[in-house]
Design brief:
Glutaredoxin; single chain; peroxidase; 173 residues; alpha+beta; two-stranded antiparallel ribbon; Thioredoxin peroxidase; redox-active center; oxidoreductase; seven-stranded mixed sheet
């Protein structure tokens, strides 16, 4: 994969894993069945916000970063956003439970970047091995409009949300 930049095409062949929301598996302990989120199909003809976080259930991600995307989803949609995809290197079961815990599983797609492969390939990863966390996704925000990257904000400090929150996405739309 090529490194990502504003104005470039989103790489082809990217697949994340996620568990789609269903009423039958709405309980936080219901596992659901992981499936492939094919970004070639997901991005075609749509405006998608991709927000990456180092980890589900971590303080900054849980409190400051992701909940505002759910709170301001209507504003994003009014500006033409079709969907918001939250990615992390966590497995799809953890991400599904996190979406349920945040009560956002029916609003946003919580998808796994398995082994942070996409993030690593694009120099958007964080090595948390010394902390026992392994390789993670860095904190970043991307807007992809019909397959073309129109915004790519990367947090200078992945423990903070300065340019990757929902307000940054709204300002760029």
């Amino acid at each position: 994969m090529a490194k990502l930049s504003v104005g470039s095409e989103f790489p082809k062949g990217v697949e994340f894993k996620y568990i789609p929301f269903t009423k039958e598996a709405a309980g936080i302990t219901a596992c659901g069945v992981p499936t492939t989120l094919d970004l070639d199909k997901e991005l075609a003809g749509k405006k998608i916000v991709i927000v990456a976080v180092p980890g589900a259930f971590t303080p900054t991600c849980m409190i400051n970063h992701i909940p505002p995307f759910g709170e301001k989803l209507d504003e994003l949609k009014k500006k033409g956003v079709d969907d918001v995809i939250v990615i992390s290197a966590n497995d799809p079961y953890v991400l599904s439970a996190w979406g349920k815990a945040l009560k956002l599983d029916h609003k946003l797609k919580f998808a796994s970047d398995p082994n942070a492969a996409f993030s690593v390939a694009n120099d958007l990863s964080l090595d948390g091995t010394a902390l026992g966390l392994g390789i993670r996704t860095w904190r970043y925000l991307m807007i992809v409009d019909n397959g073309k990257i129109s915004l790519l904000n990367i947090e200078p400090d992945p423990t903070k949300v300065t340019n990757t929150g929902v307000d940054a996405a709204l300002a760029a739309l």
